[in-house]
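We emphasize that the prediction below concerns an isolated chain of 83 residues; any contacts that depend on oligomerization or on bound cofactors are therefore not represented. The input was used exactly as deposited, without trimming of termini.
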Amino acid sequence: MTTTETHGEHLRTVHSSAHEHGWLVESSHPVSSGRILYVRCAECGARRVDQQDHRRRPPVALSRELRATPDGPGTSPRREPGC
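Result of the prediction step, given as a token string:
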């Protein structure tokens, strides 16, 4: 299992078979090919990065779905600041 740390939360890959995600845009920014959208599932909190090349077209996933897991025993070690 691959893990990564973002803002003190451990993230892991989520299988999309768990449920149908309802994605909410947390933030976005323009790029030369359209917009990059940082989205979160309203139900389970999974996150993903999407790209939308035109505002009238649906976004396309650029990343895998990641879900935050609570810090605790058995999670990957916390990185020290500046590492």
